[in-house]
Design a protein that fits this description.
Layout: H1 2-42, E1 54-58, H2 65-81, E2 85-89, H3 96-103, E3 111-116, H4 117-126, E4 138-147, E5 149-154, H5 162-171, E6 177-180, H6 183-196, E7 201-204, H7 208-217, E8 222-226, H8 227-235, E9 239-244, H9 259-263, E10 272-279, H10 284-297, H11 301-307, H12 319-339
Parallel strand pairs: 1-2, 1-3, 6-7, 6-8
Antiparallel strand pairs: 3-10, 4-10, 5-8, 5-9
């Protein structure tokens, strides 16, 4: 009996000693959901895109058509996105330098490329090797629009029409020159010469405005360039326009015939186009957000009025439609480059 009472006392003492610890454990466990909820509440919520300024790389010089159109769209898109889109000009190698920088940027929606037929269609056929895979390095975002080009010559060249210029070039093989600062400028010229059976010396430039300066000064004889660069100089009488590179005459300068009209051709057409691309891997929701902003800008009356004088036509579409256009244009430009017998550099 004595032993039993001692054992009972020890058991009761153990229970009394353990009870506070047990209660503490229960209390701590009861707090765990609250602590978890507090931690969840304290975790910062992901910020809606965009939460900071966006950089858009223009792979051509300031003042070029790509630059002017890119800046206008950037301003309008900034208004709907709530963040500024800052233009960074990175010209060189027919747009390759700027395209390469964009391709290798983080795919987070904060670096974009204002691409063209040069950077996103023709370069792979003009260069032996690109520092990026043109077909897979970019995510299509939005098509902005397109413009034809004007074939222009220095005022001291005695030709008044495109047929007269071709006749001069045939009479003086290797003595005339043409300028180019982009793929569309070069290919449109070389394709024209190939179809007309003449050869002019190629003089490369880093920018369209620089090429225009030398055309006006007589350092080169011919320059085929987009309306933004060429049309003001034609209308000012500083250079002579001979033809447009589209299949239809432009409302901006209806007195100029098309190349097809002037030379009796059927299959000549090369136009420049502009589009927004992001680095491959950019999230789909960001692509859609940017696409909506670009398409809204493409219907803005102020923007359309600003560029109607240079023959600019918009065509709002989905990223998927731009992807298809890129594939079609890549094949088209590859053929044009082969037909013009341009060797990859």
């Amino acid at each position: 009996m004595h032993t039993t009472r001692n054992t009972s006392r020890r058991s009761l003492r153990t229970i009394r000693l353990s009870l506070p610890w047990a209660l503490s454990a229960v209390w701590a466990l009861s707090l765990m959901p609250s602590l978890s909820q507090a931690q969840t509440a304290a975790a910062p919520a992901p910020q809606a895109y965009p939460s900071k300024p966006i950089k858009a790389i223009v792979p051509f010089a300031a003042g070029s058509a790509t630059d002017q159109i890119g800046r206008a769209f950037a301003q309008k898109m900034s208004e709907s996105l709530g963040q500024p889109i800052v233009i960074e000009n990175k010209p060189g190698v027919n747009g390759m330098l700027g395209a390469d920088a964009a391709a290798k940027s983080a795919p987070d929606g904060y670096t974009l490329l204002i691409g063209t037929n040069s950077t996103n269609a023709a370069l792979k056929s003009l260069m032996k090797k690109l520092p990026y895979d043109q077909d897979t390095a970019f995510a299509p975002v939005a098509f902005l629009g397109q413009v034809p080009l004007i074939v222009g010559i220095n005022n001291d060249v005695p030709a008044k029409t495109l047929p007269e210029l071709i006749a001069m070039a045939k009479a003086k093989p290797g003595q005339m020159s043409f300028a180019s600062a982009s793929t569309s400028q070069r290919v449109s010229s070389e394709m024209l010469f190939s179809m007309a059976g003449v050869q002019l010396n190629y003089v490369p430039y880093k920018s369209g405005p620089a090429a225009m300066t030398d055309l006006i000064g007589g350092q080169v004889n011919l320059f085929t360039a987009d309306f933004a660069v060429m049309l003001p100089q034609v209308k000012a009488g500083k250079v002579r326009g001979l033809a447009v590179t589209s299949t239809q005459r432009s409302k901006a300068i209806p007195e100029l015939p098309t190349v097809n009209e002037a030379l009796g051709l059927k299959d000549y057409e090369l136009i420049a186009y502009f589009a927004i691309f992001a680095p491959a891997g950019t999230p789909a929701d960001i692509i859609q957000r940017l696409n909506r902003a670009a398409n809204a800008a493409a219907t803005d009356k102020e923007l359309l009025d600003k560029f109607s004088s240079i023959g600019f036509e918009t065509a709002p579409a989905s990223p998927e439609a731009l992807a298809q256009r890129s594939r079609t244009e890549t094949a088209k430009w590859a053929k044009a480059i082969r037909d013009a017998k341009i060797e990859p550099e």
